[in-house]
């Protein structure tokens, strides 16, 4: 289905002077303006199918719809395209509404295609009586082959009486009805294959999440969308340009059903490298437990990317830079994460962590006899980040990778403390650094040292951390048409590293963003509960990282 999609004024409508003055005709080159739009008379709609959570592709459609509604002081409808009971649920409806709220989308009303089921059925029956639609019991695979070859179905010229008889079988969900579908009689020789007698209704006995078992037949998106758009007074249907060939079908259905014509405004779909946006394919990952749910941080869903640390402000800016251009682009995630970094770097607090495995103790022989505490800023350039308590002690921990890079008698800088000189390096027979001994040299200049190291005091107040990095779910930038995504699955998409963190991280809340100095940006997914349970921090890409998992 189209992630989003728009009614001409009635023929002969007279444009008055003030209305002409209210028209927006300028275009900034991105195809953003609506053709002949009039301030105060624009109605758009965002129409997701409740068969999964909103993903980053839907975001572009939602944001663009809201932008046009606000620009032209118009109306925005959120309509759930709930025409396939086999895939849909109330849970998806609730989470989509949650996602829309997260995006800050302000709408005027929520509707459902299922609200129009009686009207749609009546229209379908009128088409049958008028000879503009027919019931076909051709097997689906054969029907597809005939459509591709432009071959008319043997059922195409059945009488209206015969079609109505089979329509009633479909409506009852009988054995015969289950073998049938309703097709529009548009023409099987069209060069545009979307016009080759498309399916309007299918028989489906599965209960619907809103209307239960009231119906055994359901309209296809292709039939319901243009009709309901017109019935709801939509003036501009925003549709991604991948549906361009189906625009003629959209307008033909409006013509045959006698509803108002709705103007279509196209935009390019937001595609990202190494990313699947098909909800059917995303559902496969959930059902096969390749991810932890629709909000998994490896998923391109709104809840997934937010959980990984993407800000809505960055997402909106990224979408805004592309505008409503019809050019199809495969975007790099790095561009989005770079925008995000600019949003968080200036405000997120700084903390310290040391990787637990192989950490090395540095003993400062002239260090403080008793540990002492100083209150320092959590972000030197942002007072709003608050303050933190830093403990200074004679024995401190540093990362093993840092310990390996130190030479005897080398002067180093201990961040937020000062300089020190390493006098002894103790190693085992394999050359692994076991411990270091040094002395403080606080009068030394940080400008002269090569190594600026993060550290933690040896104290029971340190907290356990689990640092989690994620990779793409597939190993290919773009899955080509006809290619099976199962052939390019990434088997290694999650890496967890145990670490120790400064005691101030006990105060982190779920959703807080922070920077672990010299390690990158993180989002708190599981805050501190008790010492035996680690704080879980999800790594936030910064636009420079590349395939970090090995």
UniProtKB/TrEMBL annotation:
SUPFAM superfamilies: Nucleotidylyl transferase, Ribosomal protein L25-like. Its main location: cytoplasm. It is found in: Cytoplasm. Residues 1-30 are annotated as: Disordered. Keywords: Aminoacyl-tRNA synthetase, ATP-binding, Cytoplasm, Ligase, Nucleotide-binding, Protein biosynthesis. The keyword Ligase applies. The keyword Aminoacyl-tRNA synthetase applies. Its EC number is 6.1.1.17. GO terms for cellular component: cytosol; methionyl glutamyl tRNA synthetase complex. This is glutamate--tRNA ligase.
